[in-house]
Amino acid sequence: MCNKMIKVTCQVYTWISDLVEKSLFEAGIVNYHIQSGRNVVIREKHYLGGLITKTKYENDPADIFRFFIPFEYESAIMNHLIKKCEFHHPGRGTVFTEEVTLYNSELLHFDFDKLNSLELSDDLANSGFTGISCIIQRGLAGIIIKSVLDMGFCVPTVTYGEGGGFREKLGLIRVAIPSEKEVVILTVSKIDAMEVMGILVDIARLDQPGKGFIYMFPIRKAFINTRLFRGTLKQVASTEQIIQAIDEIKGNNEWRRKFSESELTKRSGRRKYLKKMINITVFTNEGYIGNIINQAMNDGAGGATVYTLDYKSFDSDYKFVLPAREMSDLVINDNQKDGILQSLINSGTLTTGASGIIETSQVPLVCTYFANHKR
Amino acid sequence: MFTKNKLRIKVPFKQTLKILLPYITSKIKFQIKAVSIIVLYLVFFQIFILGIPVQQTLIIAGGIALVVFGLAFFMEGLIIGIMPLGEYCGKQLPRKLHLVFILFFAFVIGFAATLAEPAISVLNAAGSSVKPWESPLLFALLNGYSLHLILSICIGVGLAVLIGVLRFIYKWSLKPFIYILFPSLILLSLYLLFNKKLLPITGLAWDSGGITTGPVTVPLIIALGIGISRVISGSDENASGLGVVTLASAFPIITVILTAIVLAGSIPNPAGVDDFFLNHKEVEKIFTTKELYTGSFLSHCSHDVREEIATREQVNQKELLEKLIANPLEITSYFKNHSDFEKWAFQDATLYQLYTDNKDTLTGEKIRRNTFIKNGLLAVRAILPLSLLLILLLTFLPGGSLPRRDEIALGVILSIIGMTLFNIGIEKGLSNLGSQVGITLPATFKTIDIPGEKKIIKDFDESIVIRSTTASGEKKAFFYLEEKSGYKQIPFDKTSFNENKKEFIYTAKTGPVTGKNNSIAGFFLLIIFAFIMGYSVTLAEPALNALGITLEEITVGTFTRKLLIQSVAIGVGIGMGFGIVRIIFDIPLIVLLIPPYIVLLGLTFISEEKFVTIAWDSAGVTTGPVTVPLVISMGLGVGQQTGVSDGFGILALSSAYPILTVLIVGLFVQHRQNVLLKESYITNGTENLIGEKKNV
Predict the structure, then answer these.
(1) Is the Cβ pair B676, A290 closer than 8 Å?
(2) Assembly ipTM
(3) CB contact under 8 A, A88 and B682
(4) How does residue A365 score in pLDDT terms, banded at 50, 70 and 90?
(5) B-chain residues within 8 Å CB-CB of A295?
(6) B7 — contact with chain A (CB < 8 Å)?
């Protein structure tokens, strides 16, 4: 019933989406979820012959593909996607994999003929990245996006979600508290991750009550979009291409760390993080997630973020999985895991009606405001 | 779908205030921003450009405050209650019901929504100065045959929703609908152009398309569509949930024109006033009531004809006037406005005597209806039946459920309160201000009387009058009047001089602002005014805001509410400019509608489906409860001064141009994406970094 698998997340500009779908079909991935989002990059514009330079943040529509594959196909799929969708051209998208434990993985099926026929070659994707996910009130993500871009960490992908949790426990007065959230997903270098997280916590004051929630998630392999700057090109190769090339040569991205070792040790330990947490992600048919999340929160989960997704399948066998799906993230303590999982199953997540998939993964670091931090 | 929480936290009163206050203030601030531009602009224009003081300032200020609060409540109600209700319904219907039932309910929802929204009152206002003998068919549809008009609009919208849902289910593109519907609409209107009796219907038909899609219907239908298309096809572009509003703006035009063509046979032909009332027995039918018919022929026919018809209809004029003096409230059931009543009463010596003797009772008593109850009832009618229909549908549908009941109930109540408040506010504030500006607006290009600025000079001595002449030898007369600012020349007109009382009554005149009558600069100023007014009034439109929020949500912030509202507002401005041109020069509406629609069809052809649906839908959304009264009062005001009888057509024009602007914005976005796609192919030579041949 529970299975260790690889979750592949592919964040691309919408004009690449068709290509991604095509290559998924070729690779034998039969079903996947798509979420709408946007990518933000910097554009520098020059006016009056270069006298005035203005920096703009450009938002472009993006699609986030999520699908699961067995461990042994990880490299093959990554290589296939990177080649077919030409991710090596900066400015197309990011793709990364995570290790997850799946419940109800029977819903997934694959075209193994196609999967096995994928050619095997050296890994094109790098290890050495870490994901950071930051959930913040709708409309306030700008400050995070700007600082991530200004410091040149990565291209942030932003999605919309709805927060559950504390708000649902209030009476009707909850309508006065906005539940709309903005979620910023970052893929940064492993070595910088701690520091990036610290900076974001400071900037968005995430350790203050009601400000938001940030957590780190481990990434196994990634190929990331390095084009976070648009403007005129003055060299034969763009900076992004040079970075890509050196990453390629070195096989990692340690050479471009932004913070020195001593700086890191100096700063760490100042902030309180929650460590060794678990992220439970639930995918269900639309209309079921509300009940399930509420039940989980009654059973001890702290809060949840709900997203709407689309489900696509090249296989017509599974009619009960609706094209309209919902997904929810619950970050909980390690010791709550079994209780919450039981609660999710009890509230009907795995029934045919909900056609749910439960996924758990490690979250090494979380920062938010917890009332019991106060002495 | 959220079950009751076991752990409900009780919030103390102080904390509640702490949560509520910033929430409420932020909503109100937003509306103040939205409304302030139009108000400041109108006041600025009236005072500084036209140089005429604003009257009834206190009432107007109060009205505008009500608009702000009303809009804040209404928008919140839409977001908390009405839109989720539509979306839940859209998501559950296709799963639980057979296609035939879905289509049936779609038709009922469209029909009921239109029946509930008081569109007809708006059309009535636009046609309030239509003269029955000039365009009897138009008059009939607005009055005696108004049920035919309402039903034809309702059927049109019902069909539109039905076909819109079918479109989602079968994932049809919107483009073919546009290619078929709008050219055929234009052909139909061209047919009307050559039929004198049917021609006046064009404006009514095109406007009813825009008006029917009101502030409750639109957000609800859009939410419903998004729900349905999500369940059926996920993120499929052709079925992103938009497009029903476009159909709902087009179908009523067809049904109204067809109704008019069918009815045309039984309606009298246009004729001179006297002939019209004398010859046609069936004239009475085109009026809503016999009383209004009586009032109409009494005030408009010449003396002899009036007597003749009065005898025929057994109306004793003296008795009637006595009855009205005894009960002044009844005047409105006979005469549409007080000047018609006066016109009748002044035409006969005995009646005039009777009128002047009782002048105080007739004009002194202000006839007031209870506006609060009236507007409250309208709001309840517009919102409650429709929401109840959906709530019942969700509750009693086998396997259906109504999530978040408390929020939806709160939303419905908030939107009813909000709609009541802003309807009153618009009537007393914005519309009032708008019609003041509308009447004085022609001062940009010609001399007009300042309404309400009647002055009496007592002990007037005729010997101070000075004779003068024009270059062509026409004799004129004027006198000097001393005012604070200096001496002013007032033209002397014998009819304004009462020799017995030695009183001279004159109306202050103003304009033209540009110095010369009918100057090009004056017209230009007027068109610029119309543009800015169209632009700023659109910013406050609640249905457009709702569409903006929905779009921002669907596109995860890449197509922002601001971008949509700005581009639509500019489009409305341009349309309004053309609308004013139509009214000043009395150009047939269809002549002004054809060029933009031809361009639109071309742009639609080269645009992506996504932007096509957004653009055409926003056209239906633009003309809502804030725009319509202001536009109509402006149109009528200008029309009165320039002698055009109806204010129709501006709305149709201001629906056409936003499509154009939004499509152009869409094309820009499309172009940018193509550039970015190409940019991401830049490689270092023919070999890319991975070392493989690139296949372009």
Answers:
(1) no
(2) 0.83
(3) no
(4) confident
(5) 3
(6) yes
